[in-house]
Amino acid sequence: MNIDLYLKEKANLINQELDRLLPEVELKPQVLHQAMRYSVFAGGKRLRPVLFLATLDALEEPSEPYLPFACALELIHTYSLIHDDLPAMDNDDLRRGLPTSHKKFGEAQAILAGDALLTYAFKLMVSPKEKGASPEKLLAAIDEVTDGAGLKGMIVGQVLDIQAENKEIGLDELQTIHRNKTGALFAASIRSAAVLAGCNPEMLEKLTGYAENFGLAFQITDDILDVIGDTAKMGKPTGSDQEQKKITYPSFLGLERSQELARESVEKAVQYLIELPAGADPLRALARQVIDREN
Amino acid sequence: MNIDLYLKEKANLINQELDRLLPEVELKPQVLHQAMRYSVFAGGKRLRPVLFLATLDALEEPSEPYLPFACALELIHTYSLIHDDLPAMDNDDLRRGLPTSHKKFGEAQAILAGDALLTYAFKLMVSPKEKGASPEKLLAAIDEVTDGAGLKGMIVGQVLDIQAENKEIGLDELQTIHRNKTGALFAASIRSAAVLAGCNPEMLEKLTGYAENFGLAFQITDDILDVIGDTAKMGKPTGSDQEQKKITYPSFLGLERSQELARESVEKAVQYLIELPAGADPLRALARQVIDREN
């Protein structure tokens, strides 16, 4: 299984669909559509849509009707980045080497572009009904996403992250922040696909175990890359966590133990998939790849 | 038909349901739940949920399973006010006589409380499936709301409103702004209820005609109240439009012609309901009441 090729193919598929769903020209007001499109196409590995599609593959469910749903997950991720970068939040001027939305379009438009992406995401999640998707399953999948993006996940993580600023927190609290802020949307991407594929409760639990360990490995690797990564490949200055005295896995555990923990999490993630056939190879490879990436 | 009693009963019903859906204590992070609840319970006539329920009544559809859906409309309205009040947008310190969300909780929490209300609204819209609501109809109703709150309505109106600042605009442009910014969510409240009630396309068109004229009468009256209203009853200083040189109906048409136009819009709105039985009396009374209100 060539995971790089798989990732590339799926990312291309998602990018084509995003291009169709977020047309560049003519739509009014132009600045709103430009701002939405700008941030969505400012890079990104499309990891959440890819996890969603790889889960459908693992469960042998055709993915074509659900491409807009996969894109919705990327729109939600993008809206969260736009709002997170705002002056009142992280106040970041650059993201992936480009000016952030509020630097490019002004703060009001950035807030509204985020709001619009979130709202439009729900329109996209509804849309597979036109291609014959089961309405019951769609509703259940949308419910998964509202939890992961909202009060049982991402927004909670954002609030906890803000509360932790300039405070001494422990490893437990750090994990709670990441599990909510990043992990929950990964989990929702996987769980919503599982629900759409009509997965049984036992397998849903196992895929959730995969998702949680995937998210942990992802976050630890993020922190490690901030210490040892290459600024050019990261699209942002490395070493910034240490400068800002941010609590990270390496600052708690040291670099070596952090790398070990990331590897252990990957192995745990893969272990959860042991009953699944070859269709789950992309999910397995994705977990291994998450700690080998350079950005 | 006693419209004041009807309004009061429905608003009580909505407030009880909102109280249940947004519990005050124990949920973490507390500040997030406090901020969500604060703005939702900072007053408001619950007009969008009431229009939603009155439409169900008009079409003789039981409303009980859809109470969370009705509340979702209020959450979306509330999130839009929180974001609209932000320093980067209208920069308002007071709303309905109380400190705005960012004044009370800080800007970051206000942004996140808005995001959380919007996300949670979709969870509530999904939830009537547990009470046996048709999944197909729920998806179609959610789609109506994504349009009205998003790229075919409210957010477009916000962007147009920002673009019109410090510019000379015409009456046409003023109407386009209001139709999107305020009218579209009224229309979505009515159309989503109609879709849930299984309404036929002809009646859906008529209810949309009602909604558009209702929205117009509402907005004209808002502008008139800013000229002649009572500061205490409005919860904000009147005369502010004129001070800020905002373009309004009275500034275009004069007070008398504006009042006339509001009356005409109400009569048109009511005319659209002519085929509907006594169950539509609340919708009729609501339209008449919208120009007689004092705040």
UniProtKB/TrEMBL annotation, chains A, B:
The keyword Nucleotide-binding does not apply. Keywords: Isoprene biosynthesis, Magnesium, Metal-binding, Transferase. CDD domains: Trans_IPPS_HT. It comes from the Bacteria. Its cofactor is Mg(2+). NCBIfam families: FPPsyn. It comes from Dehalobacterium formicoaceticum. The keyword Transferase applies. SUPFAM superfamilies: Terpenoid synthases (SSF48576). This is Polyprenyl synthetase family protein.
